[in-house]
Specification:
Radius of gyration: 20 Å
Structural class: alpha/beta
CATH architecture of the largest domain: 3-Layer(aba) Sandwich
Mean pLDDT: 93
CATH topology of the largest domain: Rossmann fold
Helix content: 25-40%
Low-confidence stretches: none
Largest sheet: 8 strands, mixed
Distance between the termini: 26 Å
Oligomer: single chain
Number of domains: 2
Number of strands: 12
Strand content: 15-25%
Number of helices: 9
Order of helices and strands: HHHHEEEEHEHEHEEHEEHEE
């Protein structure tokens, strides 16, 4: 197995301490879509942060006196406070979002960097899909994987629900692995570990449970959290499906949450999945979790033939097991 991400360095320990202080102080924030985020921040009076939600949720420039001095000191030691070019204001390089009573560190808005670590409405729908499938499972889970874990919410949710399982949080983005590792410690899920891996190539053996929330859009900048490849963003989702089918243990389940461009009523990802599963002894279900997401993408030339972009959940279970 690949070597897991290293133990906490001084900057990571300070970032963890910052997140714990915010959590213990009652900080909460639900992260919306980037389009909603931009609209809210454009409102008069929202030019600068007035509270901690403005700093760590809305990613607004802030004056250090908006927070206790010890929090700003932790930000500096964690290397996540950067000065604005003028005005004596600062910005946070991270956001913190609430999910199931826990907090998750991820990248600040706007997520323009190639290695940005995304968290948003897709994360909440992904978590809901995992909860639904976990509730329906009777067999124990010993080994689990979160492919393309990002900030780690999927793997951490599984680790919290199944404390006896060893959960591998997998990504090729080192920035994501750093935050997933810190988020796992923050959540108290010592059974979740972060590994650098392209799909499942960096970890051996089979898995009782595999989850994934891959990027599924076409992104000209090819940002790792956003660009899915293929003709309309489905490429990585299909690659994850293929990798998981080879590595499910008997009785194992894949929960794949993704998005697909519907073109003249045709769902290309459903067709690809059905083609791969035809003749295989697998039980599977496919449903639309949301019929219309990221509608603003339809204004881009890449989607000029699409009716809509739907969020879908593909669940596959291999027969066998105890």
């Amino acid at each position: 197995m690949s070597t897991p991400a290293p133990l906490l360095c001084e900057a990571d320990a300070s970032l963890l301490a910052l997140a714990k202080a915010l959590r213990d102080g009652g900080y909460r924030f639900v992260t919306p879509t980037p389009a909603t985020h931009a609209r809210v921040n454009r409102r008069p009076g929202n030019e600068v942060a007035r509270d901690l939600r403005g700093v760590f949720g809305w990613s607004r420039p802030f004056s250090p006196d908006v927070m206790p001095a010890e929090l700003f000191a932790l930000m500096q030691r964690a290397e996540v406070a950067v000065p604005e070019s003028e005005g004596g204001l600062w910005r946070s390089l991270v956001r913190l979002s609430s999910l199931d009573g826990a907090l998750f560190l991820h990248s600040a808005y706007p997520t323009d960097a190639a290695d940005a670590v995304f968290f948003g409405p897709d994360t909440y729908r992904f978590a809901s899909a995992i909860r639904i499938e976990l509730a329906a499972r009777a067999a124990p889970i010993h080994r689990a994987a979160d492919i393309g874990c990002g900030a780690g919410p999927g793997g951490i949710l599984v680790a919290a629900a199944c404390p006896g399982a060893a959960v591998a949080m997998l990504d090729i983005n080192d920035a994501a692995l750093r935050l997933a590792r810190i988020n796992a410690v923050l959540a108290g899920t010592s059974n979740a570990a972060a590994f650098r891996s392209d799909l499942l190539s960096g970890v051996p053996g089979d898995f009782d449970w595999i989850v994934s929330n891959p990027p599924y859009l076409l992104d000209p900048a090819r940002r790792s959290y956003r660009h899915g490849g293929g003709s309309l963003g489905e490429g990585l989702s299909i690659a994850i499906l293929d990798a998981a089918l080879e590595r499910l243990a008997p009785g194992g389940t894949l929960v794949l949450y993704t998005g697909v461009a519907i073109v003249e009523g045709h769902d290309a990802f459903h067709a690809a999945a059905a083609g791969r599963l035809a003749g295989m002894d697998m039980a599977w279900r496919y449903r639309e979790a949301d019929p219309d997401v990221f509608g603003e993408e339809l204004e881009d030339g890449a989607y000029d033939q699409a009716d809509r972009i739907a969020a879908v959940v593909l669940t596959i279970t291999k027969p066998g097991g105890r």
